Q: What sequence folds into this?
């Protein structure tokens, strides 16, 4: 090695003149220059980024390895452009100045440095006249530790986001101020730390993390004991070495032989099966799974019928290639089949476990459960998993089979529905494609404002006066409604239980109405029809949609509402015409009033079961009105709980639906909380689009992360009106977090929600919505015997 160095010194005088030299005051290093340590092993200067050669990183790197491995960088998060320079000013300040002339990095913000130098250890120092370092890169590591480097308490090493991307990544190794050495995943962009996946448990005793000159990395305890972290040591004179926290969260000890770096120790040895946070997506992104490649590095892969959100960034997760069902009641039979994956599992997404189902029963059960996206079968055990899939990993010893529910390619939907012009036509089927149409069409769903009280009276007059004045809920004939809708011509939208048509009553002036024609499924369930009519018929509140009348003739069941021109809240939250913050506040309060009325104040308490923006309609003055009582379940007077099959829509349903727990009005509180988050943030509760940050995909997780980390402003983005009412946003967010508590008994009742919204009572700081006992529906213990066996 010294011979090579000697040759270098002889043939390259300009290089030689830089080697062995101190960087003295008044020196400027331009983007094309590098400085070297005396041995030439390390270089310091600007490196073009491998991903974009017009951006430069101020870095220290191994100069003699083929790949010029970077060991430290000053500006990973803000690379500079051509024309930038590094200066050691005459008054001894070390400055990185970008092409515009502004200082972007200044590590030691006072004068006093006599010179700067890159030492043979790879340490970049600023030294005083007596050569004592006043600043050194070894004290501010990025993702790498070098031999002879010592880290003290309260120091962290942060992984890079991706290989060749030097921005801050998702994992941190930290020698905490209490002496514990830990590795944990972080959420981007909030920097929230999740549970540690590796630690030395040395609270009170860990003092220094040492990578000694003999190539051993160990934690030194205060009684002198060492805890070895690397498992083998290699002489530093024979090998280049480094310990790097790689972008997949593994701390690796690399040694360099002539043909590249070799991993000698990995901690933890299997990252895929070690990261296991209750929240967050795991070692890879949502809907993907983590598998170790032949070099024991993490690769993030998608299950069948899923593909990467961004093929260049596999760690960001996957998205379903098919339209995921809304689970709002439509029939799914025949639409799905399974693809098998052996030894892959997503333990974070379980919502139901059976211990007496063989594989075919497991398949059958999942197929008929709209919320089931994946089933996992092992022996007589069957777990059902819902989207988004989290903590996915491939584990050789799992001894089970994941069954991925994918669209049935040989399935052909029934022919398009034909709507009868006469009562003889009965082919009103809710078909497959309808599921995806349902949401968009629902926007158009209209409704009514009129007096509603139960009555048996049977007016023939269609004049609006009598409708508004009289107490009667009208009973229409089928013929009247057929004429009013011009033969069911103009469709306004489709809901879970039927299709809505526009119509006019032949009065002066014309009264616009919305006629909901209940589909065949429901026509066969006569009781539900009566229930719906009765429940709506007895409600009377400013924030509830009014029923105008109905038709119950032969096989035909229809409901008549007044048409509401502004459609559903969804358009005003997620569309281009977003409402301002003040209006959103009014709407959130209005909906809460309506729900309180349904739960406590009306004739017989009603649980709505499907609260979501599509079911909130707005009148001309943007007063919110809760609609679609198709799912409402009437409660007896003294009854507060009821049992029923899962109802509701993905993203808004509370956990107790999945747990065979009794269903109470608290399910509406949960859905209200999710919707309140959507109202605050103007974004959907589940969002798996390209360009979205993975951590933001599940609004409930992200909102709580932002709350816990004091970064609430990130939730409202550039909504200036909301930012101006920061206290209001904070109060609404805290209320929403109370509402989405996983444990129903922790959620407030609607009366209390209303009091908190009205500032009548102070909102106490909410706890985490995910109580620790419920973080895993399957305890990690289930894994252990198998992993070891
Ligand atoms: C750098 O400067 C210091 C202090 O002036 C001196 O002690 C040291 O020998 C110099 N190093 C080199 C390599 O010139
Ligand atoms: C650093 O690496 C470059 C490119 O491989 C080489 O030309 C140069 O001689 C090296 N410098 C030293 C001091 O070894
Ligand atoms: C490289 O970065 C520059 C500056 O940010 C940008 O203008 C340019 O588009 C980038 N080029 C590529 C290929 O991404
Ligand atoms: C650790 O670092 C943080 C932030 O840099 C600082 O606030 C804290 O006082 C430090 N703790 C100790 C024990 O040095
Ligand atoms: C997260 O930490 C990085 C530094 O590690 C910092 O640059 C960034 O601003 C932090 N993000 C937030 C949202 O605080
Ligand atoms: C390196 O190992 C040698 C012999 O095994 C030992 O004498 C020396 O103290 C060690 N150096 C360090 C820094 O641990
Ligand atoms: C030092 O402390 C550690 C943990 O606190 C203990 O396991 C070890 O036995 C101690 N060693 C000595 C020499 O006291
Ligand atoms: C730690 O590593 C050093 C050097 O490899 C070795 O001498 C020592 O026995 C190891 N200690 C333990 C507890 O394994
Ligand atoms: C897939 O569709 C075909 C044709 O409609 C049907 O015969 C088959 O049973 C379906 N498969 C499943 C698993 O439902
Ligand atoms: C699974 O169980 C069902 C019901 O007990 C039985 O009919 C079926 O044959 C079983 N299937 C297998 C593959 O054992």
A:
């Amino acid at each position: 090695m010294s011979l090579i160095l000697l040759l270098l010194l002889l043939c390259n005088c300009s290089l030689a003149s830089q080697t062995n030299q101190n960087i003295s005051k008044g020196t400027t290093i331009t983007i094309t220059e590098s400085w070297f340590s005396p041995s030439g092993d390390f270089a310091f200067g600007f490196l073009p980024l491998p991903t974009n050669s017009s951006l430069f990183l101020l870095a220290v790197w191994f100069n003699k390895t083929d790949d010029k491995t970077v060991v430290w960088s000053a500006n990973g998060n803000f690379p500079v452009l051509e024309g930038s320079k590094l200066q050691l000013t005459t008054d001894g300040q070390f400055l990185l100045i970008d092409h515009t002339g502004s200082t972007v990095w200044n590590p030691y913000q006072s004068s006093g440095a006599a010179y700067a130098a890159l030492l043979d250890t790879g340490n970049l120092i600023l030294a005083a006249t007596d050569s004592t370092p006043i600043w050194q890169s070894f004290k501010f590591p990025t993702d790498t530790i070098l031999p002879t480097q010592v880290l003290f308490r309260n120091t962290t090493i942060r992984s890079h986001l991706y290989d060749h991307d030097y921005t801050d990544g998702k994992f941190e190794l930290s020698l905490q101020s209490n002496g514990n050495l830990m590795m944990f995943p972080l959420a981007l962009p909030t920097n929230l730390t999740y549970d540690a996946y590796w630690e030395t448990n040395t609270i009170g005793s860990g003092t220094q993390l040492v990578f000694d000159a003999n190539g051993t990395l160990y934690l030194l305890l205060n009684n002198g004991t060492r805890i070895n972290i690397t498992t083998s040591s290699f002489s530093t004179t024979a090998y280049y070495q480094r310990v790097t926290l790689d972008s997949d969260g593994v701390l690796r000890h690399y040694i360099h032989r002539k043909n590249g770096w070799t991993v000698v120790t990995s901690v933890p040895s299997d990252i895929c099966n070690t990261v296991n946070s209750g929240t967050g997506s795991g070692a890879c992104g949502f809907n993907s799974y983590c598998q170790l490649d032949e070099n024991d590095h993490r690769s993030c892969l998608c299950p069948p019928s899923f593909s990467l959100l961004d093929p260049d960034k596999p760690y960001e997760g996957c998205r379903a290639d098919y339209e995921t069902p809304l689970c709002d009641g439509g029939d799914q039979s025949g639409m799905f089949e399974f693809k098998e994956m052996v030894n892959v599992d997503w333990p974070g997404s379980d919502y139901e476990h059976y211990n007496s189902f063989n594989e075919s029963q497991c398949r059958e059960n999942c197929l008929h459960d709209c919320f089931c996206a994946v089933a996992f079968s092992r022996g007589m055990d069957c777990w059902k998993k819902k989207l988004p899939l989290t903590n996915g990993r491939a584990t050789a010893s799992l001894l089970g089979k994941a069954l991925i529910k994918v669209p049935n390619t040989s399935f052909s939907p029934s022919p398009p529905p034909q709507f009868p012009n006469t009562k003889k036509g009965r082919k009103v089927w809710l078909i497959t494609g309808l599921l995806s149409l349902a949401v968009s069409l629902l926007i158009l769903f209209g409704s009514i404002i009129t007096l509603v009280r139960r009555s048996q009276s049977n007016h023939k007059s269609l004049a609006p006066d009598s409708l508004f004045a009289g107490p009667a809920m009208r009973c229409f004939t089928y013929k009247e409604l057929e004429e009013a809708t011009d033969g069911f011509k103009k469709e306004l939208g489709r809901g879970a239980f039927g299709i809505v048509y526009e119509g006019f009553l032949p009065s002066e002036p014309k009264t616009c109405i919305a006629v909901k024609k209940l589909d065949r499924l429901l026509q066969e369930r006569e009781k539900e029809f009566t229930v719906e009519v009765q429940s709506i018929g007895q409600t009377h509140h400013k924030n509830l949609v009014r029923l105008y009348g109905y038709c119950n003739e032969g096989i035909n069941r229809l409901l008549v509402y007044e048409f509401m021109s502004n459609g559903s809240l969804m358009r005003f939250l997620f569309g281009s015409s977003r409402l301002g913050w003040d209006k959103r506040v009014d709407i959130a309060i209005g909906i809460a009033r309506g729900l309180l009325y349904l739960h406590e104040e009306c004739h017989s308490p009603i649980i709505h079961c499907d609260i979501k923006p599509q079911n909130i309609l707005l009148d001309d003055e943007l007063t919110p009105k809760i609609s679609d009582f198709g799912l409402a379940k009437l409660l007896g007077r003294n009854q507060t709980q009821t049992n029923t099959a899962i109802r509701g829509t993905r993203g808004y349903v509370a956990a107790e639906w999945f747990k065979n727990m009794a269903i109470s009005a608290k399910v509406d509180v949960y859905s209200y909380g999710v919707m309140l988050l959507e109202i605050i943030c103007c974004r959907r509760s589940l969002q798996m689009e390209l360009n979205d940050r993975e951590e933001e995909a599940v609004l409930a997780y992200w909102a709580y992360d932002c709350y816990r980390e004091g970064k609430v402003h990130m939730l409202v983005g550039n909504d200036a009106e909301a930012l101006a009412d920061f206290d209001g946003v904070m109060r609404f967010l805290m209320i929403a977090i109370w509402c989405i508590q996983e444990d129903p008994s922790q959620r407030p009742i609607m009366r209390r929600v209303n009091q908190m919204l009205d500032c009548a009572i102070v909102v106490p700081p909410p706890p985490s919505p995910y109580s620790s006992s419920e973080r895993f529906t399957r305890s990690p213990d289930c894994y252990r015997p198998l992993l070891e066996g």
Q: What stands out?
A: Residues 1-20, 415-471, 633-646, 772-789 have pLDDT under 50 and may be disordered. The domain at 141-269 is CATH 2.90.10.10 (Agglutinin, subunit A). Residues 205, 221, 223, 225 surround 2-acetamido-2-deoxy-beta-D-glucopyranose (ligand 7) (CB under 6 Å). The chain has five domains: 17-134, 141-269, 271-409, 474-562, 570-788.
